[in-house]
């Protein structure tokens, strides 16, 4: 499956699921962070890193501007303060199916759909706005 086919199918599946998006999460607890890529019904993607533990919360998030046909992930610049290029995924190297991605050639820790996102008000994806857009646009 190519990247453009993946994006089209993902968009259709999100709308069919009656949610505003999907959350892809990297398998395994191999470090102190939980990395997620959020995909939304309008084709936008956001990478978020969460920390574990008592002070769990968002460490940083970066908007993905585009995913090229070769899988290279282009992020909105400038990156947030303290975020290094090594901290973020660089390329989708394989799409096993619509629910499972291989990123940066790592076949051990796959990125799988962990949940449907029903709203994300921080980025303007409220439930009401989704329903209005779905009915009228």
Structural class: alpha+beta
Trace the largest sheet across and list its strands. 5-4-3-2-1-8-7-6
The radius of gyration computed from the alpha-carbon positions, rounded to a whole number of angstroms, is 15 Å
Number of strands: 8
Report the order of strands and helices: HEEEEEEEEH
Strand content: 35-45%
Stretches where pLDDT falls below 50 for ≥5 residues? none
Q: How does the overall form come out from the CA principal axes?
A: globular
Mean pLDDT: 85
The largest sheet is: 8 strands, antiparallel
Q: In whole angstroms, how far apart are the ends?
A: 28 Å
- The helix count comes to 2
Helix content: 10-25%
Describe the structure.
- The chain is of the alpha+beta class and 137 residues long.
- Helix content is 18%, strand content 38%.
- It is built from two helices and eight strands.
- The chain has helices spanning 3-16, 127-136, and strands at residues 21-26, 33-40, 45-51, 57-67, 73-75, 92-97, 100-103, 111-117.
- It has an eight-stranded antiparallel β-sheet.
- β1 (21-26) and β2 (33-40) form a beta hairpin.
- It is globular, with a radius of gyration of 15 Å.
- The relative contact order is 0.20.
- The mean pLDDT is 85.
């Amino acid at each position: 499956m190519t990247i453009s086919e993946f994006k089209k199918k993902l968009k259709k599946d999100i709308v069919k699921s009656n949610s505003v998006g999907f959350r892809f999460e990297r398998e395994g607890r191999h470090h102190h962070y939980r990395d997620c890529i959020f995909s939304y019904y309008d084709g936008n993607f956001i990478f978020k890193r969460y920390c574990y533990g008592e002070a769990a919360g968002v460490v940083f998030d970066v908007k993905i501007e585009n995913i090229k046909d070769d899988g290279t992930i282009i992020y909105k610049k400038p990156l947030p303060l303290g975020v290094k290029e090594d901290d973020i995924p660089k390329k989708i190297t394989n799409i096993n199916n619509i629910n499972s991605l291989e990123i940066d050639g790592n076949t051990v820790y796959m990125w799988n759909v962990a949940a449907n996102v029903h709203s994300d008000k921080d980025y303007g994806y409220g439930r009401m706005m989704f329903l209005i857009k779905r009915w009228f646009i």
